[in-house]
Amino acid sequence: MSSTDNYHYPQEVPRPVYAIGAELVTDGFEQPPHRHRKAQLIMAVRGLVTCEVAKGLWMVPAQCALWIPGGMEHGVRGVGDVAVYMLFVEPEAVPAMFTECCTLSLSPLLRELIIGVSHLPPLYETEGADGRLAQTMLDQLVKAPVERLHLPLPSDPRLRRIADAFAADPADRTSIGEWAHRLAMSERSLFRLVHRDIGMSFVRWRQQCHIVFALKRLAEGEAVQAVAFALGYENASAFITMFKKVLGQPPARYLALRAGRHASVRTDD
């Protein structure tokens, strides 16, 4: 019996970081809602990972990572051909780290550090080279910028009707005024409710729904033009403009950079 057999992974391994290594799941995967004491980092190398908590949905495209604070109930799902690395981190190891679930953009250095840590033995020497590698990874992790890949999920039942409609028909263009009429509210009251419950405007909320839909379809290999039409855009250019406004880059470049490709990509597609 090895010295690690006495621990119930990953929660009881007495190290700042414990990695379960890389997994390749060709048909995706799904973990039902659960929670654990340690914080979790999920780095997507290929495919798309989503995480749902009580108040939102977070997306993890390839070459990004999802940070899940310890004790937070969450369900995780991988879409399509997925390859991931998973780390479990002691809360006190990153006291300045994020207290909310979020998607992080990873530098090439940080990605390599995460892969390196995943190859460490479970009970690595904390005072030796392995410990320094793990600490360097944690130091870089704290500096990682947050991506705008969060879709708030409403708690108000009236707004859940709207969210369900968004999910059922992403191309729907019902205005906030029309929704107010359906919900027997004034437009101003609905406007305030959306801001209070969701934390963003109605238009911005719908854009985030489109981004979630688009990233899922694009990760599955669907063409930009087909995704644009599925979302009700008259042409691909209008969809690309929206995508670039929200995520800072057009779809092809955004996905190429996160897939680690450096070939020339047109900025308008």
Structure report:
- By secondary structure, the protein is of the alpha+beta class.
- The protein is 38% helix and 23% strand.
- It has 9 helices and 8 strands.
- Strands 1, 2, 3, 4, 5, 6, 7 and 8 form an 8-stranded antiparallel beta sheet that branches.
- Strand 3 and strand 4 form a beta hairpin.
- Helix 7 packs across helix 8.
- The protein starts with 16 loop residues before the first strand and ends in an 11-residue tail after the last helix.
Order of helices and strands: EEEEEEEHHEHHHHHHH
Distance between the termini: 56 Å
Quick one: how many beta strands?
A: 8
What is the gyration radius calculated from CA atoms? Answer: 20 Å
- What integer is the average pLDDT? 84
The oligomeric state is single chain
Percent of residues in β-strands:
15-25%
Biggest sheet: strands, sense, closure?
A: 8 strands, antiparallel
Shape: globular
Q: What is the tally of helical segments?
A: 9
Helix and strand content put the structural class at alpha+beta
**What ranges have pLDDT less than 50 throughout 5 or more consecutive residues?**
1-6, 261-269
Summarize the structure.
With 269 residues, the chain is α+β, with helices and mostly antiparallel strands. Helix content is 38%, strand content 23%. The protein is globular, with a radius of gyration of 20 Å.
